[in-house]
Amino acid sequence: MTRIPVAVYAEDPVLRTGVTHQLRPRPEVEVLDQGDRERAAVALVVVDVVDEPAAALLRRLRRSSGTRTGVVVGRFDQDALQTTIDCGVAAVVRRAEADQDRLVATAVALHKGEAVLPGDLLRRLMDHVGRLQRSVLDPNGPTLSTLTTREADMLRLISEGCDTAEIAVRMSFSERTVKNVLHEVTTRLQLRNRAHAVGYVMRHGLI
């Protein structure tokens, strides 16, 4: 079996040593020394967060044809998802889940041209792609700014089956306030009733 040449990148020597130590004993991969990284088929970038220095490294690796990149990360938020997409990252592994088998499986998947994402990040990616598609198909369509946070929260509760009284209790508003807010939403968006409003905002990915 041909071993997959893997380069490990980490500013923190503890992180670099930890990942390298897990990978070296495995016959599926060959961990490259720093001076031999140009042979890498797979690059694993190990970071606490995807900040600007990490993004700069990811962009540089993207320009290296033939190398597919994965990120092993401590914390990962929506901004990081956008950055990794822009930088062509094909795999994300949370550091808390990065045991030896997971790291090797990620390297093998990357080498095969596959993508690796945790389930919750995959859902967020699909939502992101859906929003991009909607903005291309209908650039004048509704966006997240169409609703206030309070309006979105109320409509989300309605979609979960809550009535006016339950929404008032859960959001610490009076029932009158809830009715007024929902009336404002349906009037502003020219919708017939609450069910129409919920369907509208769910169809456009606003809740």
TrEMBL record:
Is the keyword Transcription regulation in the record? yes
The cross-references to CDD domains, in alphabetical order and at most eight, read: LuxR_C_like
Which Pfam families does the record cross-reference, listed alphabetically? GerE
Q: Does the keyword Transcription regulation apply?
A: yes
The entry lists its GO molecular-function terms as:
DNA binding
For this entry, list what GO says about its biological process.
Answer: regulation of DNA-templated transcription
Would you tell me the protein name for this molecule?
Answer: DNA-binding response regulator, NarL/FixJ family, contains REC and HTH domains
Q: Which InterPro entries match?
A: Sig_transdc_resp-reg_C-effctor (IPR016032), Tscrpt_reg_LuxR_C (IPR000792)
Provide the species name.
Lentzea fradiae
Which residue intervals define the domain HTH luxR-type in the entry? 140-205
List keywords of the entry alphabetically. Answer: DNA-binding, Transcription, Transcription regulation
Q: At the top level of its lineage, which domain of life is listed?
A: Bacteria
